[in-house]
Amino acid sequence: MSRILTALVAVLMLSQPLLAETPASGPDPVETLVAGALKLHKQGKTAEAVEQLQQAIALMQKTLQKGLASFFPAAPAGWKAGDIESSAMASATDSGGGSYTQVSRTYTRAADNVTVRISITNSPMLIAAHQAAAQAYANPQMIAAINQSGERKIELVRQEGWFGWIESQEGSAQAFAACKGCMVTANVSNGELATLKRFWGAIDFKGLAASLAGAKSLPPKVEDK
């Protein structure tokens, strides 16, 4: 139990770089809850310790989601940004743990209801699942073979520490990029590559990468056009 509790505390700290700074007016509520949970655990009060850890998890995930959501681009003229959707999970076992925090937003074009959906996810576990594709796409010969086939087109994305790709084929266009345990994905409902690239280019990847590294970064400012 002690190793599991320690692993869970470590999971809680995985996303610290994107969390807001602790107010100078008082103690960090997350640290207070975690310290209280450890104290309760040592006293044998397991149920109370778990409850306090769950409160700490909820606070950290809420703050992380707010930080990630600040990097969604503004809706261009003629488009409407939907509500921000969020989901999160944290788990721990004797061998370690993992976390998953995601925010998503769907943009809708008023003229024809075409949609663009962007998701920002903080999860080293999910990024690991894309490693095989990333290694394959890092091979210029592989990319050349795919593009020459004419069935689909792959355009590599390398910017500000991010690596990924924009993939398009008839009726479909999607993008993926990963950096420091975080990934960004986007897709457009009707396969308009130019529309996808317009939104993709409006994401502040540099600012998001800086936040992931623990540097102070302001949310992106994208003017409506």
What is the tally of helical segments? Answer: 8
The amount of beta strand, in percent, is 25-35%
Mean pLDDT equals: 78
**How far apart are the termini?**
55 Å
- Overall helicity: 25-40%
Backbone CA Rg: 20 Å
* Number of β-strand runs: 8
Outline the biggest β-sheet.
Answer: 8 strands, antiparallel
Q: What general form does the structure show? A: elongated
Q: Which sequence of SSEs, written as H and E, runs from N to C?
A: HHHEEEEHHHEEEEHH
Sheet/helix structural class: alpha+beta
Our count of domains comes out at: 1
Uncertain ranges? 10-17, 215-225
TL;DR of this structure?
40% of the residues lie in helices and 29% in strands.
Give an overview of the whole structure:
It contains 8 helices and 8 strands. It is of the alpha+beta class and 225 residues long. The chain has helices at residues 2-12, 29-42, 46-69, 124-128, 131-137, 140-149, 193-202, 205-212; strands at 79-81, 85-93, 96-109, 115-122, 152-159, 162-169, 172-179, 182-188. The N and C termini lie far apart (55 Å). A hairpin with a 5-residue loop joins β3 and β4. The chain is elongated, with a radius of gyration of 20 Å. The protein has one domain. Helices cover 40% and strands 29% of the residues. Strands 1, 2, 3, 4, 5, 6, 7 and 8 form an 8-stranded antiparallel beta sheet that branches. 28% of the residues are buried.
